[in-house]
Amino acid sequence: METEYDDFRASVRSLAADKIAPYAADVDEKERFPEEAWAALRAADLPGLPYDEKLGGSGADLLSQVIAVEEVAAACGSSALVLLVNWAGTSTVVSHGSDELKSLIVPKVASGSAGAAWCMTEPTVGSDLSGIRTSATRQGGDWVLNGQKRFISNAPWAEWYAVLARSGENDFGVFMVHRDDTGVSFGPHEKKMGMRGSPTADVILDDCRIPAVRVVADPMQGYQYINGELNVSRALIAAQALGIAQGAFNAAVAYTSEREQFGQPLARFQMLRGMVADLAVKVSSARALLYEAVALIVAGDPRARARISMAKLLCSDNAMAVTTDAVQLYGGYGFTREYPVERMMRDVKITQIYEGTNQIQRLVIAKDVYARQVRS
Predict the structure, then answer these.
(1) pTM assigned to the model
(2) Are strands 160-166 and 116-119 parallel, antiparallel or unpaired?
(3) For each of the chain's 376 residues, which pLDDT tens digit applies?
(4) Catalytic residue IDs
(5) How far apart are CA 374 and CA 85, in angstroms?
(6) 339 with 251: CB under 8 angstroms?
(7) End of a domain among 75, 97, 115?
(8) 263 and 130 within one domain
(9) Which of 144, 155, 259, 373 ranks highest by number of CB atoms within 10 Å?
(10) Same domain, 19 and 54
């Protein structure tokens, strides 16, 4: 399955090694936007991967997107997050939006000249999207939005924000808000443990008025639209976790091959070899499950929802274990910022939390297990 993608993987890996990795530590240390990485991604046309050629993209399949996120994340988790959040922020527009709305938003995002984000989480709402309080009220031909969205990746850098808002008592819509719309403001930059190069802030909507053309399809069906995109977005988050794990694994193998103790390389010690073997299994098994889930998503197989929850769970849990053990393999040096593994350990923690916590993924998986038992 992977062989036909080898050249693409090699090209993204080379770009990440040459033009992203050298700046990753500085991006993390200064908590700044990864400008060099974004310029390199734009030059390689990677922001346009998932979009139709008619909209300025390259029409690549989901596995290509997953591979791109993996390879970028292996060099810099923050850079990978900026990229994949752009895709998530435009996903409902691509899937359900009018041609006019697609033409308004997608070409600039595909070129990398504009960023996107999606806004679901609120101060009192995380996994339970049905508790959203942000409101959207129809006024003439416009919609007026009021509310506050929290922990929004790519804010305030992004131009476009896909806002999930309550449009009726039990109905929700997806509304495309522009950064320069009247009534839009942003909270302070979040000080985070990891992914410090990914801008994150509240998006505040105070009587924000947008024209009806910026509503994604039916303003009462937004919850269903967002739910329909979760398979793909969870695949991308799983890929991000997997990429960070691969990056930490590669760094630990290189370090233990070169570092000597007691007159021989660390790689010669049996207990250390056992740790490395376990890490190799964690990375490879996570990749196998993710790619299987991606194939099910592409095929439209109903098993995809539970399988991608399994993949998101396994990739992020394994990545947390891999990065933690990579720090251990570096010894005291792993605890310093001189080497990348401590950053990778901090970065990867969030992959167990966002896009549905791993506790939520376990509930999805268990629900599917019992449902299949009943059907059989």
Answers:
(1) 0.95
(2) parallel
(3) 457 799 999 999 999 999 999 999 999 999 999 999 999 999 999 999 999 999 999 999 999 999 999 999 999 999 999 999 999 999 999 999 999 999 999 999 999 999 999 999 999 887 777 789 999 999 998 999 999 999 999 999 999 999 999 999 899 999 999 999 999 999 999 999 999 999 999 999 999 999 999 999 999 999 999 888 999 999 999 999 999 999 999 999 998 988 767 777 776 777 789 999 999 999 999 999 999 999 999 999 999 999 999 999 999 999 999 999 999 999 998 999 999 999 999 999 999 999 989 999 999 999 999 998 877 6
(4) 355
(5) 37
(6) yes
(7) 115
(8) no
(9) 155
(10) yes
